[in-house]
Amino acid sequence: MEALRALAWPLERLGEALETVARHRGLPLHQRETPIPPDGLGRDGAAELGLWLETAAAWLGLEAEPVEAPYAELAGLVRGAGPALLRLPSAGAPCCLALLKGTRRTVTLLGPDLAVHRLPPGSRVCGALPEPRNPAAGRRGAAA
Question: What's the whole-model pTM score?
Answer without folding.
Answer: 0.77
